[in-house]
Amino acid sequence: MIELLKSILILAGSAFMLVAALGVLRLPDLLTRMHATTKAATLGVSLIMLAVALHFAVEAVVARAFGVILFILLTAPVAAHVIGRAGYFVGTRLWSGTVKDELRPNYDSVTHRLSSHRETEANAAPASGESDKAG
Amino acid sequence: MSSIILVSLAMMALALCLAFARLYRGPSLPDRVVALELFSAILVGMIGLIAIATDVPSLLDVAIVMALMAFMATIGFARFLERGGPRDD
Questions:
Q1: Domain range for residue B50?
Q2: pLDDT recorded at residue A127
Q3: Residues A128, B58: Cα–Cα separation, whole Å
Q4: How sure is the predictor about B85, in pLDDT bands with cuts at 50, 70 and 90?
Q5: Cα separation of B21 and B12, whole Å?
Q6: Beta-carbon separation of B42 and A21 below 8 A
Q7: Of B9, B31, B64, which is closest to A68 when you measure between CB atoms?
Q8: Is residue B32 in a domain?
Q9: Model confidence over A29-64: pLDDT tens digits?
Q10: What is the mean pLDDT of chain A?
Q11: What is the 3 state secondary structure string of A85-134?
Q12: CB-based burial label for A108 (10 Å; 0-12, 13-18, 19+)
């Protein structure tokens, strides 16, 4: 029973990793590639670490395996966010079939500020020196 | 059991090759960083599989260090890109 479960977990995990690698090779631009790798690779590593925990079934090893899962689950979204943000700043081209880029008209790439184009004198953001007081 | 581990290792090796193709072709630096991140995830999985195959639980420490290093490398590359990496537009 445990053997069967382990086999299923291992095969599913490596299949998800293969799908992630296919996605990173075949998809057209940076954001779609990240969408493929981040989620599929995280799930693949988690499944294989579950198989490791089932295989050894000792407290120390199970704790370490779950530590790896927790660490991957915590860091993968952070890394994806940081790389996506840096890629947008650098000016990576989006796919030609992209329907909408809502950031493009509202975002100033020099000052890194968002605006809604509805600012008036009254609700304008204060100058950078006194921004703490405005609250 | 060992044949299943063999098949899974072969699939992961194929996945490494595909990720390497993206690392080689990747038109911009963020694409290459994404491929490197995928590399590290696949390597963590491979180390877990080898820990199962050889019955050596200490290999999990290697996996933890691998994941940590990959996260740090990604953050470092992102900082480098934001502080005036080569622009692409």
A1: 2-82
A2: 56
A3: 52
A4: low
A5: 14
A6: yes
A7: B64
A8: yes
A9: 899 999 999 999 999 999 999 999 999 989 999 999
A10: 85
A11: HHHHHHCCCCCCCCCCCCHHHHEECCCCEECCCCCCCCCCCCCHHHHHHH
A12: exposed
What is the DSSP code (8-state) at residue B84? T
Q: How confident is the model at residue A134 (pLDDT cuts 50, 70, 90)?
A: very low
Rounded Cα distance between B38 and A80, Å, is 11
Q: Which of B9, B44, B68 should one mutate to test binding to chain A, selecting the residue with the greatest count of A CBs within 10 A?
A: B44
- d(CA A122, nearest CA chain B) in Å: 32
Average pLDDT of the segment spanning B2-29: 92
Chain length of chain A: 135
Q: Which two tokens stand for residue A112?
A: 């890194």
Residue A113 confidence (pLDDT) above 90: no
Residue B89 lies in a domain: no
Token duo for residue B24 = 């080689």
